[in-house]
## 1
Amino acid sequence: MIIPLAHILIFSLLLFATGLYGVLVRRNIIGILISIELMLNAANINLIAFSKSTSLSPETGQIFAIFVLAIAATTAAVGLAIVLALYRVRKTVYTDEVHLLKW
Amino acid sequence: MTNFPSKRKSSGIKQWDHVYTSSVQNAPSHHWLKIFGAGALKGMVVTLKNFVTSYFRKPDQGGIFTVQYPEERYPEIENYRNLPFLVYDGSPDKVRCVACGICERECPPKCIYITMETDVAGKPVRKPAVFDIDYAVCMNCGICEEVCPFDSIFMDHVFEIASPRRIDTGMIRHQEDLLKSSEYLQKIRPKTATMIDEKKRAAEEKKKAVVKPPQGPTV
Amino acid sequence: MVTSDQIILVPLLPFIAFAVNLLAGRWLKHRAAWLSVAASTIACFIAIPVCWAVFQGNHFANQGTWLMLGQTPLKFGYVMDPLSSSLLFMVTIVGTLIQIYAMGYMHGDPRYSRFFAYVSLFMSAMLTLSISDNYLLFFMSWEIMGLCSYLLIGFYFEKDSAAKAGFKAFLTTRVGDVGFLIGFLTLFSAIGTLNFSEMNALMANAHHAGAPLHAGLLSLAALLIFCGTIGKSAQFPLHVWLPDAMEGPTPVSALIHAATMVAAGVFLVARSFSLFMIVPNVLPVVTVIGTITAFMAAFIALTQTDIKRILAYSTISQLGYMVTALGLSGLGAGTFHLITHAFFKALLFMAAGSVIHGTHVQDIREMGGLFKKMPHTATTFIIASLALAGIPPLSGFWSKDEILLSAFASGHKIVFMILLLTAFMTAFYMFRLIFLTFFGQPRNLKVHAHESPAVMTAPLWALAFGSIVIGFPGSPFMHHWFQKFMAHMVHHPEYEPSAFVMACSVAAAVCGISLAGVIYLKKIRWAQKTAETFSFLYRLSLNKCYFDELYSRCIVKPFQSLGRFLFGFDARIVDGAVNGTGHATLFISAVKGWIDKYIVDGLVNFTGTLTHFLNSIVKRLQTGFVQNYLLIVFIGILVFLVWELKII
Amino acid sequence: MDMLSLIIKFGIYGTMALALIAAIAVVTLRNLFHSALCLAAVLIATAMIYAAFHADFLAAAQILLYVGAVMTLIIFAIMLTEQLGSKTIRQTNRQNLAALAGLLVFVVILGRVIFKTPWPVTEKALASKVTVMELGKAFMGPYVFPFEVISIILIAALLGAVVIAKKDR
Amino acid sequence: MNMPPLLRDIEFAVDLSFVNAKGWILDLLSHIVPDWVVVFASIVISGVAILVLGPVIMMYLTLLERKLIGRIQNRYGPNRVGIWGLLQPIADGIKMFTKEDIVPVYADKVIHCLAPIVIVIPALMVFLVVPFGERMTAVNLNIGLLYFIAVSSITTIPIFMGSWGSRNKYSLLGGMRTAAQMISYEVPMTLSVVPVIMMSQSLSTNKIVLSQSGSYDMNWFIFTPWGIVGFIIFFLCAVAECNRPPFDLPEAESEIIAGFHTEYSGMKFALFYMAEYMNAFTLCGIAATLFLGGWQGPFLPSWIWFLGKTFVLICVMIWFRGTFPRFRVDQLMGFAWKFLLPLTLINILVAGLCHFISEKTGWIYSFIIFSISFWVLVRLNRPWMPEKRHYPLAN
C-alpha cells in the first residue's frame, strides 16, 4: 500500500462530499445524476481501499465494487430514461420547475 | 410488370422497393440458397480481379488509362473550345476582324469590348482600335466564333492560363495578346481552317468570275 | 210422562223469540208480539207438567260439562226441586199473562218489536235462573235480567227521566251484583264447588259434624250473597232504584218490578238457605234489613201521589216481608209469600196500567170516580188490594199470616209488632189509592177515562182468579202442603198455626181499610190536618225519607267531587307531570343540544382547526423541490451522527 | 523509499488532487456538458487509482462501463434535453449555502472519525494481488447468486429504460 | 522448428533485434544513472517507440489506402510526390500543418480543441497492449484484452466533444450517429472476443498468442469453427469501430457533410484522421493476435509475421472500402444488434461445445449449428436487409 489508508478515505470522503453538494445544489436533474455517479465512485474507492489494505479475502472488495458499478450503470440508464420522459412531458429539466407535488 | 405495393407488414424502407425490386416478389424459388454474404463476396472478387489486372491490362482493354498530365498530354481534340483569339493573316497588323461589333453584341456574358479605329481624319477605319476580351468572364461558349462573318475570331485550346495574382490578374487580354497567326489556327483547328480557306478560295474564284463577266444590276 | 230434559226448552224458546224479534223485528212489526207470546205459552205448557211431576215428589237434575278449565270441568245443568218448580210455575203463568196484557198496552208503539224482544230475553233469563243448578249459571241469568231491566226501564229513552232511571237501576243493582259475585266466589274458594246440591250435601255434613268448615269465610260469603239480594230485591240501602224504575212501560213494571226479577233476590237466599242456616250471625242481619225495608217502604208509600210509585213502595215493603221471613228461617213462609205476592202485585200493576192507559194520567190527585168508567179494572184492582192487605179468603192473608206466625213463634216480638204495623199501613195506603182513584168525584174534568180492551182485561181477570186460588196450597185447608213441600229442601223449624196471629193480622187490615175510607171518602181535611200536625213525618214520607238526596249528597256528590278532584288532579298533576316531563325532556334536550353543539362539536371542530393550524405550519416543509427534501434528510443524518453517535 | 515508489506516491496524490478538482468542476460548472466531461475525467482518475491499488480488472471495467457506457448515456441525455439558449440560467438553486455548511460539518465529523479510528491495516492484505482468475473463481464460487441477480437487474433496467424513454405512439 | 542452426540463429537475431536493441540501450544507461531511472528509461523508450511508430503507420496507411483504392478503381494512386507517392503522407502532413485552423465563432472553444487530443490518446494507448513480436509487447498486462476493449470504448467521448463543441447541427447529428454506431458495434466485438479468452484461459495478449502456438506455430484459432465466425464478426466490428466503409456512414462526405469533424480543419482534422487510422491498425493487429496467431509463424521472425498479418488485414479493410456501398443507418444498426450480436452468442455456445467434443465431429456440429442459426437470422432480419436490386426498366 503505497499511501496510508486514511488519505484515501479522506479523498473518497471529499469526493463524496462534492458529489453530495452537487446533488443538493444543482438545478439540472442530469447534473444531479452526474453527482450521484460521483458519490458512487467515492464509495467504490473506499471499497477498493479497504479490500486492499484490511480485508482478509482481498477479492471481495473488488467484486462488490463491480456490483456497485453495475448498479450505477442501471441507475444512470433508468434515471436518464425518466429524465427524457420528463423532458418530453414538461419541456424542462430543472428541478425547481418540476414542483407539482407541493401543498 | 409493376404491381401495386400490397399492404405488407414492412418497415419504412420497404415501401420504396416496388420502384427498384418490383420483380423481387416473384424471385426464383431457390431464394434461400443465396446466402446473405454471397453478393458481398462476388463484389469483392470483382474488385480483386480489377486490382490485380490493373497491373497487366492495357489501357484500352480496361486497364489503367490515366494520363499523367504534366508529363503525358492527352491528344488534342479539335473541337475543344477555351477562350477566343483573333486571327491575323501574315503579319499581326493585317487583322481579319473589321470591328463590326456583332460578336460583342452576341456575347452572352458580355466579355468583349470593341472600339473602331479612326484614322487621322476621324473617318472610321475598318479595323478595331481596342479589342478586349475578359478571359475571367468568358464562358467559352463559342458563340462569337459562330456569328463572326469574317472568320476572324476562333476558340483556342489554351487552358493553362491560371494567374497567381488576385487583383491585376492579367485576365483582360488586349488586342495584341489575342492576335494569333492563321498558321496557329491551321495547327489547332485543321478542319475548320481548311474549310475556311476553301470558302475563301471559292469566294475569290467567284469574285474573279464576277470580275470577268460583269453582272447586270443585282435585283 | 214428560221426560225431564225438555225443561231446557223452557228458557230456550223465549230466547229464540228474542233472537228472531231482535233480528227481524223491523220486518215483523206487530207480529213480534205473537211470536213472544207463543214462545212463552209453549214454555208454559212444557213447564207445568214437569212442575206437576215435581209436586208429586219427583226430583229431576241433570248436568253437562260446558267447558274445561284446565283439568277441572265446568258443569252446567238444571235442577227441578220444590223451590225451582214453584218459582217456574209462577213465572211462566204470570209472564204469559203479562205479555198478553202488553200486546194491548203497547199497541201502536213505534218500537213494538224491540219491547217484545227485550221481554222475551227477560223471560228466558228468569227461566234459566229458576232452573239453574249452580251459582255461575245463576249469576249469568241474574246479570241478563239486570240488563233487561235497564233496557226496559229506559225503553222511552227519549225521555230524560227514563234514561236516568234506567241508569240508576242498573248501577244500584250492579252494586249488589258485585257483592253477590264476590260472595259466591269466596263460597267457591271455601267449599270448592258451585253446585247447589253439592253445597247442600256439604252443609248437611257440616251440620252433623258440628263444626262448620271455615266459619268466618262462609259467613262472609253468605253476607256478600245477601248483598246481591239487597241490590236486586231493592232492600233497605239499595231500594232507591225501584220507584224510579216506574218510568218504564207498565207491563214491564208488572213483570219485572213486581213479580219476577225482584223475587229473584229472595229466590237466591232461598236457594242458598242451607248456607245461611249454617252460618251463625247472618240470619239476624237479614231479618233486620227485611223489617227496616218493610216498615220504611210502607211509611213512604203513605204520602205518595203517583199511582205506580205507591205500588212500587208496596212491592218494596212486601219484599221486606219475604226477607224477614227468610231471616227468621221461615223458608216456606217466605217462598209462599213470594208466589202469592207475584200474582196480586202483577194484577195491581196491570190494573194501574189500564187506568193510565185509559186516563193517560199517573197522578192520583187528578183521578177520581173511575169506578163507573172502568169497572173491570176497578174490581180486579180492589180484589188485588184486598189480597195484598191480607183479608182472609185471599192468598195474601195466608202468606202474610205465615210470616207473622214465624215472627211471633220464633220469639221475635219486636219484629212481629213492626210487621203488624206495616200490615196496617199497607192496608191504609192501598185503600187510600182505591178511594182516591175509583171513588169520589173526578178531580180533573179533562180526563176522559175509558175501559181497556178485552186483551187487557182478560189477563186481569185471570190473575184475579190466580190471586184468589193460589193462597189455598199454603192454607190449613190443604194442610200447609206448600210448607211441607218446601221442607223437603232444607230442614227448618215448623210452627203450629196460631189463631191469635191470624186475628191480629185481620184486625190490622180492617183498621187500615176503614181508616182510609174514613179519611179519603168523608173527612178529606183530616188528611190535610194530620199532614200539618205530623209535618215532619209527612215531609219525610213525601220525600222518600230523603234517601235520594242523602245518596246524592253522601255518595254521588262525593264521587263527583272526587271525580272532579281526580280530574283536576289528573289535569294538573298527571298532565302536569306528563307535560312537566315533556318540558323537562325539552329542556334537557336543549341543554344536551347545547352541550353537543358547543362542547362535542366544539371539540371536534377544535381538533379540526388545530390540525389545520399545525398543517399550515408543517406544510411549509412540502416545498415540492426534491432537493429540499434531500437537504433535510442530510441534515437529519448529520444531527443523528452528532447527537447519537457522539462523534464530535 | 526508493524513487519509484515516491514517484508513484506523488502520482497517486496527483491523480487524487486532479480528481477532486474535476469533481468540484463537475459540481460547479455552469455548462452541463463541461461538467459531464469533468465527470469523465474524475472517472478516469479513479480508474487510475484502482490500477494503483492493483485492482486492474476493476480499472478496465470502470473505464469500459463508466466512460464508455454511462458517459455516453449522460451525454446523450444532455444533448436530447439541453436547451442551448438557456446556458446562462443560474445552475445552482437557493439552498447552496445551507448545503455547503452541512457538508463542511459532515466532512469535519467524518474526517475526525477517519483519523481517530485505528484501521486494522494488515501487511498480508497489502501484499496481496488479485488476478482476474481469482475474481472469476470468486464470481462463479461464493458470489454466484449476486452475479445472477445483477444480470437480472441489468435486464430489467434495460427494458425499463427503453419503455420509459420510448415515445409512446 | 527443425531449421538448420545457422538459420535459426539469424532468425532469432532478427526476431529479437528490437528487443536486444532496447536491452543494449538500457544496460548502457544502467551504468550511468541509478536503477529507477533505468526502469523509467525502459518505459520512455517503449513510449517513444510507440509515439514514433503511431504517426508513421498512420501516414503510410493513408498512402497505402489511396494506392490500393486507386488500383481497384483503375487508376494509379498518388505518384506525384516521391517515387511511388511515398512522400505523399509527408506532403499531406505539411498541408495539414499549413492549413488554417478554423474555430467556429459560437463553438465551445475548449471542447472543440480538446476533442482531437482526447481521440488520439486512446488510439495511442492501445499500442501498449499490441504484441508486435516475441517479447515486444510494450506492457504485458494480464488484462491486456480487457484494457484494449476499455480504451477503445473511450473514443465515443471525443466524438461527442467534437460534434458538440463545433456548435453545428449537422456535426451534432453526425456525432450522435457515430457514437451510436460505435457503441452498438462495441458490444458484438467484445462478445466475439469471449471464445478466444475461453480457449486461451487468459486475457493477456501474450498468453493468447502463445496459446495459438503448436504444430508448426500454425495452431491459430482461425482454424477452429468458432474461430472463423469469431474472426469474421470481430473483423466486421473492427471495421465499424474505426468508421471505415462500408460502415463510414456518419462521417462520409456524401452523407451529413463530414459527420462530427465537419468544422475541423488543419491539424485538428489531421489528428482525427490519425486517430482513425491508428485505430484501424491496432484493431487489425489485435484481430491478428486473437485469431491469426499474432507473431506465431513457421519461419520468419515474429514481428514480421505480425506485421505481415496486420498488413493483410489492412489491405482487406481497404479492399472493403473499394467494393462496398455505404450502409444505411438502420441497416447499420440492425446488422449490429440483430445479426452480429446473436451470432456472437451462438459462437460462444459453439466454442464451448467444440472445447468438449472431439476434433472431427466438433466441426460438423458447429457447421450445422452455424448454418441453421445463420439461416434463421437471415430470415428474421429480412426487413432491413438490402436485397439485390433488379432494374426492370433497364432491359
## 2
Amino acid sequence: MKRLLSVALGILTAIGGFVDIGDIVANTETGARFGMSLAWVVVVGVVGICLFAEMAGRVATVSGRAVFDLVRERLGARLALVNLLASFFITFLTLAAEIGGVALAIELATSVNYLLFVPVVAVAVWLVIWRVKFDLMENVFGLLGLALVVTAVALWRLHPDWGGLLGGAVHPAVPQGEGHPSWWYFAIALLGAAMTPYEVFFFSSGAVEEGWSRADLITNRLNVYIGFPLGGLLSLALMAGATLFLEPRGIEPGHLSQAALPTMLALGKLGLAVLLLGFFAATFGAALETGLSCGYSIAQYFGFQWGKFVRPADAPRFHLVAMVAVAAGALLVLTTLDPITVTEYSIVLSAAALPLTYLPILVVANDPDYMGDKVNSRFTNALGTVYLLLLGVVAVATIPLMVLTKAGS
Amino acid sequence: MRLTDLLGAEVVDQAGRSAGKVHDVRLVQDGPLVGGFGAALRVDGLIVGRRAVGARLGYERRTMGGPLLVKLAAGWLRHDGRYVAWDRVRAIEPDRIHISGSADDLPRPAAPQ
Amino acid sequence: MRRTWVAVLLLVAACTGPVRSSGVYESKAGQTAAAAASAVETAMLAVDGARGGKAYGRYLTQVLVEAEEDAGSAQGTFDGIQPPDQRADQLRGRLDELLDQATGTLEDLRIAARRGRFAELPELARPLPKVAERLGDFAEAHG
Amino acid sequence: MAGRVLEAALQLLDRQLVDKHGRLAGKVDDLELTFPEGGGPPQVTAILAGPGALSRRLGGRFGARLEAVANRLREGDDDHPARVPFAVVAEIGSAIGLGVAKAELETDRLEAWTRDHLIGRLPGAGDAPD
C-alpha cells in the first residue's frame, strides 16, 4: 500500500513538475502562430525526455553517479569544462526566466509591477533550497503544479472541434503567411522546452538525493513513462487553447497574461485562479530545480560534496554556487530584460546544447562497469541513436535558423 | 612525474618517426604492498594512436554494449591504436617520449577486461 | 578577430539603420499594424471576460495595461522610422490614424480598469472591433 | 601474480573520490607517478586533486591562470597540489573509495575554508534539512 502511494505520488509530481515557464511560453506562442501544426514536436520531445530521464535515473540509481559525473568521466576534464560552461550558462538563463515567471504570475494576481516581487521570490527560492528537505520540496511543488490540469479541463469544457485540432496535429503543414524557417525555429523551441538539459541534471541528482536503490528502478520507470507524457498533455492543452482563441484573432502573445486568456474565457474566475496558482507553482518549482542544478553541475564537475541530504555546512561550495546563481538570476531579471524573451532564448539554446548531455548518458548506460546487468536494452539503444542523430541535426541547425528568422520574429 | 606528463605526449622511435600520441596508460596492480589498497599500481605500458577523439568513451573494452552507431564511430576513431610496453621507453621529455626500436613493430593493445 | 567584430557591427548597423527602400518601409508598416491588431484583439478578449464576470479585476487590469503598452510601443517604433518617399508619407498617415484610434481606446480601457470601473469596459471597448478589422486589413494588404 | 589491469585515463582519471563516510571528496584530477628506488617502471603513489592539479590538465591560458591562483591559495611552503596517498585508497569502481574521512585530506582545505568563512556563518547551516 505504502509502495503504491509512493508510486502514485511520484507520478503526480512528475506531471506537475513537467511544465515550466519554457513550456508555457513555447506552447502558447506556437499555438497562436502555427495552430496545432507543431504538436508532433511535443510528442517527439516527450518521448525524448522519457528516454533520457529514465536512462539518467537508472545510471544514478545503480552507480550512484549523477549526470555531470558522467560528463566529466566520459569527455575528460577539458571537453567537460566547455560542456559545463555551456550547460551552466543555459541553466542559469532558465533560472532567471523562472524567477521572472514567478514574479509575473504574482503580478497577474496583484496587478503590481513584477519587478517589485523579484527580490522576494529570489529570497524565497534560496530559503527553500537552504532549509527544506528534498522530497518535501519536490512533492509540494509537484502537487501544486497539478493545478495546471485546469488547462485541460478548460479545453474539454469548450467542446472544441476535436477533429479539427487533431487534423491540424496529424497533418502538419506550415500555415499561410508563415515561412518554413520560422516554423522550424519554433519546432526547435518546443523541443528545447520539453527536453531542457536541467531536467536530467535534476532528475539524476534527485535519484541520489532520495537514495534510490535497485528496488526503486520500477518506480523510476513508472514516474517517467506515465508522469512525463501526462505532463506533455498539459503542454498540448496550452497549445490547443492558444489555437482556439489566439490564432484566429491574430494575437501574437508576448506576455504570460495572454497564456491565461483561453482558460479564463472557458472557466471564469475559479479556473483563472487555479491557473495562476499553477503558473506560480510550476515556475517556482522549476526555479528550485534550476537553482539546484546550477549547484549540481558545478559540484559534480569538481567533485565537491553536493546535495540536500547533508547539512548545508557539509556541502558549502554547492550551497555557495546555488545561492550566487539565484541572486545573479534575480539581478538579471531586475535589469528589466523581458523574462519572456529570456525564456525564448533559453529554450532554443537548450535544444542546441542537448547532445552535450545526452551522449555521455547514452554511453555510460551501456557500460557494465557502471551498470552491471542494468545496461540499455537493444530497443532503448536504437531509439537513443535516433535521438542522438536528431539532436545533432538540431544543434547544427539552431544558430543559423536563429539568425535567419531573427529569433523567430 | 604526473600522469598528465605522459598523456598526450608524442611517441618517437629511434629513427625519429612518430608513432602517435599517448591516449592512455595501462596500469597493473602487482607492485609492492601499499596500505589498505594491497599491491601498488605499476605502469605497464602506453596506448598510442593518431586520433584521440572518442578514446574516453570506453568502447575498446569487449564488455561494452551499443549503441552500434556510437560503437562503430568510436572504433573507427581508434582503429590505429598501438601498444608500447614500458621497457621500450628510453627517455621522457616534455611532450615527447623516445622509444627503442621502430614504430612499425608496435603491437596492437590487448583488449582489457 | 577584430576584423570579424567590425563585420558583425556593420551587419547590425545595416539591419537597424534608416530604411531606404519604400518596400521595406511598407513591410514595417504592415508589421506594426499586425502588432497593434494583436494588442486590440487581446483587449477585446479581456473585455469579453469582464462582460461575463469571468475574471478578477487585477488580472483584467494587467491584460489591458499590457495591451496598451504593446500598441503604444509598436506605434513609437514605427514613428521613429524615417519615411523614404511621398508614398511612404501617405502610408504613414493612414496607419497613424488607425494606431491613434487603437491606443486612444486602449488608454480609456486602462484608465477605467485602474479605477475599478469594470462595468464600463464593454461600452468603452465599442470602437475596438472596427479598429481591429481595419488594422488587420492594413496588415494583410501591406504584409 | 598477474594483478588487475586498469586503464589510467579511462578508469581512474576524472572519477569521484568518496571518503569512508560516503562524503564526496574531490575528483581524481591527476595521478602522481614515482620511479621506485631500485629501478623499474613507475608506480602510482598518489591521487592529485583540486585546482593545482586540474589546472595543468586544462592547459592553455585558463589553466595557467588557475594554477597561479591555486599556488597563491596554498599556505606555507608546500609547492605541490593537494595529494591523496594511494595507500588510503580502498576501492576502485565507478567511484574511488577512500579508507579515511575527508577532513583528514589535503583536498578538503577549500571546502573547509568556504564552510568556516562563508556558508557556516549563515543561520541554519548546521541543521539537518527539515
